[in-house]
Queue: 4 jobs
Job 1
Amino acid sequence: MTTTLDTLAASARDLTKIYGRGEAQVHALRGVDLDLPRGRFTAIMGPSGSGKSTLMHCLAGLDQASRGTVTVAGTDLGALDDDALTIFRRRHVGFVFQAFNLLPMLTALQNILLPLELGDGIDDAVRERARTLADTLGVADRLAHRPAELSGGQQQRVAIVRALITQPALLFADEPTGNLDSTTSAEVLDHLRRSARELGQTVVMVTHDHDAATYADHVVTMQDGRIA
């Protein structure tokens, strides 16, 4: 199948990321080329240090490449200043962090709605969408609780709802099932798969779990900063 620019959610060309200088240099990415078709679920796998998380962070605009280009929704991320990049991510990108990144002083519902507080605002339809997503992922009864009152798995699911609430064109997830039991993991992965197939979202997941990767339409394997 030929992939055209119209069907691409994101692409990377000659993507290179170098940390440090001199003998301390670490080449996290070495000239990666990658296309992410719109509405597909892609899993990125590889051993620790292979560059998979760095690749995802560059694709999401959370890290800047040393060389090469990242294009998302037709926009060259390297051409945006910090303020424009922040606005672009808010409008087009959702991210599920491995460490959850929930604000401890806010309730689960407040954490979920935070991206919209910073953006287009909140109305009754948004609140209803938040509750529906929370119910789908099994945390509807925990929305009034703060992160310290939630288990690791519950915090993970709240973080996933927060990433989905803005209905992003691209959703990036870093080990989204790492703190979940097998039943809940299956529910989360099935929801991510349906987000791609039924809602047309482009989902990119970093995982070590081969079972989790089977839910994806496509698997990219990283090795020593390159696509194997």
Job 2
Amino acid sequence: MNLGKHSSASVLARRGGRGGSRYIAAIYFAIICIAAVSSALAQSDAEFAKANQEYAQGHFKEAISGYEALVRAGQWSANLFYDLGNAYFRTGDFGHAILNYERALALERHHPEARANLQIARDEARALEMQPSAPERYLQFASINQYSIAAALAFWLAVFCIARLLFGRRRSAATILLLVFLLFVFAIGTFAIYELDRGSKGRGLAIVADKDVQARLATADTANSVLALPPGSEVKILSTRGDWVYAALPNNLRGWIPAKNAEQVRL
């Protein structure tokens, strides 16, 4: 009997040991992941600081190379695009400056320095802008993310109200009024998301960053020109065909542009 108990205890000990080993291995793996992430963040911070130093010393092309490396690595932030825009502005490349100011504002709508410098760059380049539709003008006080949060919150609160009306003992007039209000908020939020996403500042927004770009009637360099687009001009990409994009242009026009000349704001 004693031998049997001893054997059972040994088996449990071995099982506990294996479980403990897995637990320790998981902890080591988590520590390694945290260390790797911390190292990557530290390296990114160091590269960003180096690019800032190059900018401060007036080495704008070197600063651009450093900032662009961070963009390619996916280390996106409003301040990174803002600084990159400033570096391009210093080299006289207003098209790429405007592109990066727009990207900064796409990440942080209320970035006053990016907005102010964007207007200065537009004035210098005489860039053309897309005009927002009437619904867009009224809906631009909030971002798509804010409308999404409001719509999601209204939806789930409405579900709660419906459940209360279905399963509650009494149907409260206040609950019904609240449900109607929440459905109204959900509808407005959904409409705003749709309008802003497909609008002049939505997903299709692109910047013509290069010089001497012409929007044309067809996908050929010899086709008639529809509109000359100064650097930094806004277009909205509607479709793609090979190396060309069909775009909505300022002044309510449409035309074909080489895809390489139209860089989307949202990466």
Job 3
Amino acid sequence: MFRHQAVYVAPTNYVFAGDSGKPRWQGVMLTDHIKPAAVRAGIGKVGWHTFRHTFSSILHNAGTNMAVQKELLRHADIQTTMNLYTQAVAPAKREAVHRVALALLKG
């Protein structure tokens, strides 16, 4: 969509290149672009760990083995992955409650 406006369009160029063609500093990306976009989208406060938590939850929801999740997130202890990073996503929660309700109604 905006590719025709981009300066760096080669397949080997960085997606978020700065004026030098090199990646922008992560703090600048977060402060100048990601945080304002999150506010405009109504998401609220975000940071780099927001992406890590989201990545972990999506991996979990996709059925990814916990050991694989741990390694992809580069955690030393699998408990960190399971207890701090991975959260159940809303559709999975709804499905779990639905199954409980069906089981109760059958009984």
Job 4
Amino acid sequence: MDSAVEISSVTKSFGDFLAVDHVSLSIASGEFFSLLGPSGCGKTTLLRMLAGFEHPTSGSLRIGGQEMAGVPPYKRPVNLVFQQYALFPHLTVAANVAFGLRYQNIPRGDVGKRVSEALEMVRLVGLENRKPDQLSGGQRQRVALARALVLRPRVLLLDEPLGALDQKLRKEMQVELKNLQKHLGITFIFVTHDQEEALTMSDRIAVMNAGKVEQADAAANVFERPATRFVAAFLGAANILEDRFIVRPEKLFLRAEAACEGHCASLPVTIEERVYQGINTIWTVRTERGQRLTVCQQNTEPFDPAAAIVGDKRHLWWDKHHAVPLAEAKPNE
């Protein structure tokens, strides 16, 4: 598959602060690619360099095979959707969507058609004459998307565009965005600090930390086979056994008996805490070496409050295939 974006050993410094540290990534055409990490990890700075609002201190950025050095934002085959949408409050939905077309020498007769097509993509037909303050949060987010899509960018850059939505609407929009991206076939590069959001939407994820890419891989691989301690801890809870292996809480099981067969491993533990969550029960246990581990068990059987209590001795079981070796090396070092 052709590459839409090539990032080659890019760094960005702000004075003595190194915001992006020798990052190299190749993003395929038609891919939903997420940059995931905590605040200050460099993900938004990297996105802004792709958009042309920041310039690399060193390294190379290519979009659609074209070197971006010296190319201003308005001449790049990308568009950026912000978290706050930046809609013009005095303009209608249609006028907001059409705004960028006036700078592209689009024939007047084609503007209305392009706007209608963009509004149909995001399911806003019939709302053309409303103002932003007459729309819900999800509808305003769709207007911002339509305004970007009407320009037919090769790459759509999204800087935490769902961050202002409530949890229920945010989850709905995650599915809508992914379906829209599949339908359009446009490359999406999505910035988020929310690991569940990245896992839900992405084909691949680059996990960033302190300006570096710790791991770039398929979404399932990043979660199931984290390359470093940081990735394991950032994407959900992670138990690190003997400082060498990662086992996710949902891969662990509490049993009364010690013996297990085949590819099973076990060790004795003491129950320290139990939290009943309806669908799941979360157990905190301590090994004989004093390490605290988390176990997440789905409540598939009727709840039995006497089944196990704090202070009970149990044995922790796991499949050896679910124990992932831990590496500390970072791919772009």
